[in-house]
Write the structure tokens for this entry.
Amino acid sequence: MEVNMESGFYLTLKSSTKLDWIDSNEHVNMSIYVRLLDKSLDLLVNLPGSINCILPKGVGFVASRLNTAFVSELIHPTSFVMNAGITSLDEFGFSSYHCIFVNDKKIARLYLKSSFFDLKTRKSIQISKDNLEKFDLSILPGIKSNYRF
């Protein structure tokens, strides 16, 4: 997977489908989308000035909501691009947006809401607003997360 910074997002992953990603319906298995999301989230939060730079020692984050929308299927063999960025941040957590493109056509959107939590007690927590000032990336403008469950 190749990583670039372009197109207004902080992270752009370029890759191709793998034969072992294909399920019995001859398209990429749902679990692969989650693995791609997880990979892009790990890279995104570890960028200089991103989420892991603002977390106090002993604090992590956990995905609390995931919303996906698919426009068309991803089949093999296909090259694709996945963009990712932070859409909101406050003392309770953050939201991220991940979008998969094939030939400049958006085929999937993944919204993720993550909450901060104490690694020892495993409970959600609120971090200091002073920590938020260390966040050195811009919030992606104009993207609204839609969490209706």
